[in-house]
Design goal:
About 35% of the residues lie in helices and about 20% in strands. The protein is built from 4 helices and 4 strands. The chain starts with a strand and ends with a helix. The model has no long low-confidence stretch (mean pLDDT about 95).
Length: about 100
Amino acid sequence: MKVKVCGITRAEDLQALVDLGADYAGFIFYPKSPRFAGDKISGRTVRETGSGKLLKVGVFVQPDLPTLERTVSDYGLDMVQLYGDFPAAFVAEIKRK
C-alpha cells in the first residue's frame, strides 16, 4: 500500500513524513485553499527535504501552464494532480515534461 499525505504547509510536517516512511507528500497550490503551500513553505525546503525517498505531488486547480511549470520547477515536484476541465492538449503538454 502507498501512503500520501496532502495539505503539507510546514517543514516539520514534511520531515515527519520522511521519518515515517510515507510515499507521497501533497502540496496544495490553489490560492483560495487554507492549505495553500505557496505562501507557507518555501520551494527550497520542499526540494531539499527527503529527496529521492519521498515523492512530492503538487495539487492544482485550473492552473495556467506557465504557473504550473514554474511551481513544479521551484518546488521540485515529482508529479501533479489536476482539478478542473483541461483540454487534452494541455494534459499532453504536461505529460511530456
